[in-house]
Amino acid sequence: MKSDTKLKWKRIPLPKDIFSGEKTNPSADVVSEGVKKIDFFKENCRWIWNFDKAIIDYINENDNVCFYEIYTDATINLECFLNNDNLFENKVFVVRKGVKCNVFVDYNSTGDTTDRIYSSIRFYVEEEAELNISRLQRLTSSSTVFFELLIDAKPYSKVFVVDAQLGGDYKAVSVEIKADESAETKIFPAYFSKKNSKSDLSYTIQHNGRRIKSGITAKGIVDENARKVFRGNMHFMQGASKSEGREEEECLLLSDNVYADSIPALMCDEDDVIGEHAANIGKFNEEKLFYMMSRGLSAENAKIILIKSMFSEVTYMSKYDEFSELVEEELFGGAYGI
Question: Which of 23, 48, 94, 260 matches a 20 to 30 Å C-alpha distance to 298?
Fold first, then answer.
């Protein structure tokens, strides 16, 4: 990375050694029926880079962008196992008109490895196409993650994203959907800020046409001495009349010694819209715990059931059958779980 590049990150402070090390784990090529690699894709795509430009430049320096066309109904499964690696991803996908595509991505590592992911993924979803993304990040507690996911959703398209961010010492995640007329777009984040970790999470839906229906429903846990910032953004641009957008976050605190900041935002340049936002931050509901314990459950088992119930509201939205099971396994069965 060039030494004269200046960071302009204004969220949770970036790690000092963010640009250390060379690429050790090349981004896997996408091989699946209904998907083909293309040389170039040029359309009027509306990408907005929420990441610091220095991070995007770093990704571009270490991994050339790859273009893929999804030309018929397809299911894409990508498993990325890291072992003290630096993984760079730089991909653009085109989902053609009327095509239905399900994508499952699993980023995993075990033991005491220290891994890093620098990822910039973009989807261009044409009219009447449907895109379902289920992403599971479960790296070790000493790993660092930078994710940028950008989706341009054309008229009458459907986009659903289930994003489980469970691992990592430091994770910076930005997901943005730009939707056109009569599109349906929903994001379901699930996060776990483990002890002493830092999480900077941003989820945005921009409404650019009439009669768009959208939602952001987030569930998360913050453990002892962890720091979390969550931004749920709904933009209603001029001309987005009759559109509806709802954003809500539920955050469970496992300790008094945490920093948990929730910033729901509605930005509106159009009158005739429905926009709602809400944030609920707190500890376990004592009345629910008492009721469950009075029925013979231990305090620990009662808390586990409440956590599973909370997370299931988002994980069950995944099109991947085993997604909820994998999330629960990471939360309660892993070496760094609850």
Answer: 260
